[in-house]
Specification:
The protein folds into two domains: 73 residues, Orthogonal Bundle (Rna Polymerase Sigma Factor, Chain: A); 71 residues, Orthogonal Bundle (Arc Repressor Mutant, subunit A). 75% of the residues lie in helices and 0% in strands. The chain contains eight helices and no strands. α1 crosses α3 and α2 crosses α3. The longest helix has 22 residues. The N and C termini lie far apart (59 Å). GO terms for molecular function: DNA binding; sigma factor activity. This is RNA polymerase sigma factor.
Amino acid sequence: MMDNELINKIFKKKMIIIYKYLIKIGCDENDAEDIVQDTFLKAIRYIDGINVEKISSWLFKVAVNKYYDLCRKNNKYIKLDIDDDIIQKSITDDNLAENYLLNLEKREEIIKVLDSLSVIQKNLLILKYSEELSYKEIAVFLDIKENTVKTYLFRARERFKVVWRNDYEK
């Protein structure tokens, strides 16, 4: 059995990442908090049966599945959300209003392209570029090899570019 200090260390960082990820894929904050709490409680309940090396991917899968179950239960469409921080970073002082509106439009286009990708491609792109996780961290969360993350992420970027060029480049 793992001690409380180790449990807290493992869970605290992982649950923050999962919470942020849930928000990114459209979960509202209250539901994300509930899902994270439920996932944590489930992990505590089954801690002896969870492979310690795979605990991150177990937590991630349980939380994301809980979110998808909630969406199905409420007949809610899963809507991706991109942080306003991303938009704010690209706004300059000159032509502020015009740039802001153009960035909002671009944000919607990015969301549409991400929504057109497969779930794994969308997950990889969000975890890498929005959550800024390393290849190794993504591999742990998705329970796949680091080289597989690199390969799949390359393909996801390429697919994103193709869809972007076809639908939004003029």
